[in-house]
């Protein structure tokens, strides 16, 4: 990426220099029609960019040998362009290195927690957690962009796999980062952050390892956005809880679900990591609102979104929260088997959502049929208008008879 950025910068400098040189040299080059016989070596330089940058007229400048012209020309503008390009490339490389260092340091701080939970951490199947952590920490991460890094873990009871994504600030592009902060300030939105998002897939996520439900602990600063953007959380009830920090709220479908998952380990971890926690979600419903019944497929998953820790204390709290997050899935498998009344309530919510989707599909189908009937009727009228008067009379009589039969059959069905 560094070499490509350098090439882009040099290309920009070359283009700008060529444009400047073309404007100055070509605009003031003597034409063939000009009377050069009257030109004098002592002629006063005319006021042009070329004369100002060389202290000589165009005729005098072009009379010099090539290297003399290069030596006497004032390259200050080109130096400015080159300085801007070098600064841009330096900031780009420095920002990318900064992001890489922060992502690597975060992975290093959480590696022990991940290795204690999974048999394999990283994309290399030959590296397992039964062996000492001799592999460089950077090997556990895969860079997929200037601001994006991913990691992976598998081999654990009750969890089939874990995917993580680290999204950094746009430090490689200072202009973009300044724009993002300015946009957040002007429109009162969330400022950009260094974030880590983790998705854990329970074993047999599409089967009955535990009863389906939706539960979340969310930072109040992003509560509204998360609720608006997540279909599953829009079906929950939001409430404060005395066991949670004041900066967090709980979203749950039932009080029994909340009390079952509020283990001492989870509550202690949330209190310790309240400065880094964005949200913790365990759900069996899709994040995106389904548009058709076929998209309404319950699939169990657990999500954790956290900010990059800024201190050793926050790193330790993050590791504690990560362990509690994974262990909560074990709690769900062991205890998330609800009383009949709670199960009926959850099932009624899901059935009601499916009925809404079916109604929307039926309405769309009826609307399409109505449009098709109107189109067929219009085409039929156009066809009748081309017939003779006798044929039109017969066709209209046949249409009236068909309409009467339809009305009679409708009345019989009502009776």
Notes on the structure:
This protein has three domains: 2-74, no CATH class; 97-341, no CATH class; 348-414. It has twelve helices and ten strands. The protein has helices at 2-28, 49-54, 58-63, 66-72, 76-117, 174-186, 223-229, 255-261, 264-272, 312-335, 340-385, 389-414; strands spanning 120-121, 142-143, 148-156, 159-167, 195-202, 215-219, 237-239, 248-252, 277-283, 301-307. Strands 1, 2, 3, 4, 5, 6, 7, 8, 9 and 10 form a ten-stranded antiparallel β-sheet that branches. It starts with a helix and ends with a helix.
Average pLDDT rating: 82
Instruction: Count up the helices.
Output: 12
**Assembly type of the shown chains?**
single chain
Count of distinct strands: 10
**Could you spell the SSE succession in H and E letters?**
HHHHHEEEEHEEHEEHHEEHHH
Structural class by helix and strand composition: alpha+beta
* Weakly predicted, low-confidence segments: 18-48
Query: Strand content of the residues, in percent?
Result: 5-15%
* End-to-end Cα distance: 77 Å
Q: Please give the share of residues in helix.
A: 40-55%
Number of domains: 3
- Give the overall shape, derived from the CA principal axes: flat
- The Rg value, from CA coordinates, equals 36 Å
Largest sheet data: 10 strands, antiparallel
């Amino acid at each position: 990426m560094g070499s490509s950025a350098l090439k882009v910068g040099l290309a920009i400098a070359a283009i700008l220099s060529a444009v400047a040189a073309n404007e100055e040299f070509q605009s003031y080059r003597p034409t063939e029609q000009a009377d050069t016989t009257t030109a004098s070596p002592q002629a006063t330089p005319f006021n042009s960019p070329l004369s100002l940058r060389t202290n000589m007229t165009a005729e005098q400048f072009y009379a010099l040998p090539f290297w003399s012209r290069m030596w006497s020309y004032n390259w200050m503008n080109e130096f400015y362009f080159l300085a801007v390009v070098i600064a841009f490339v330096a900031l780009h490389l420095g920002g990318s290195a900064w992001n890489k260092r922060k992502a690597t340091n975060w992975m290093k701080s959480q590696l022990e927690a991940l290795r204690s939970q999974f048999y394999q951490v990283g994309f290399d199947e030959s590296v397992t957690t039964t062996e000492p952590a001799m592999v460089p920490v950077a090997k556990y991460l895969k860079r997929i962009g200037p601001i994006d890094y991913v990691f992976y873990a598998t081999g654990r009871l009750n969890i089939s796999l874990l995917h993580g994504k680290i999204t950094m600030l746009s430090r490689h592009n200072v202009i973009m980062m300044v724009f993002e902060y300015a946009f957040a300030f002007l429109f009162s939105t969330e400022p950009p952050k260094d974030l880590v998002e983790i998705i854990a897939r329970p074993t047999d996520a599409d089967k009955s390892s535990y009863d389906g439900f939706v539960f979340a602990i969310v930072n109040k600063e992003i509560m509204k956005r998360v609720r608006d953007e997540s279909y599953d959380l829009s079906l929950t009830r939001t409430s404060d809880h005395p066991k949670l920090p004041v900066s967090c709220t709980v979203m749950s479908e039932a009080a029994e679900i909340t009390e079952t998952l509020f283990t001492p380990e989870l509550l202690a971890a949330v209190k310790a990591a309240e400065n880094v926690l964005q949200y913790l979600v365990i759900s069996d419903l899709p994040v995106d609102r389904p548009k058709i019944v076929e998209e309404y497929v319950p699939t169990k998953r657990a999500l954790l979104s956290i900010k990059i820790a800024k201190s050793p204390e926050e790193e330790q709290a993050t590791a504690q929260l990560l362990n509690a997050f994974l262990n909560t899935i074990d709690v769900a498998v062991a205890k998330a088997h609800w009383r009949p009344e709670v199960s009926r309530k959850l099932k009624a919510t899901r059935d009601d959502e499916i009925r809404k989707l079916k109604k929307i599909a039926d309405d769309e189908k009826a609307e399409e049929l109505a449009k098709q009937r109107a189109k067929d009727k219009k085409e039929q009228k156009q066809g009748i208008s081309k017939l003779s008067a006798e044929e039109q009379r017969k066709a209209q009589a046949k249409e009236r008879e068909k309409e009467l039969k339809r009305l009679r059959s409708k009345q019989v069905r009502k009776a």
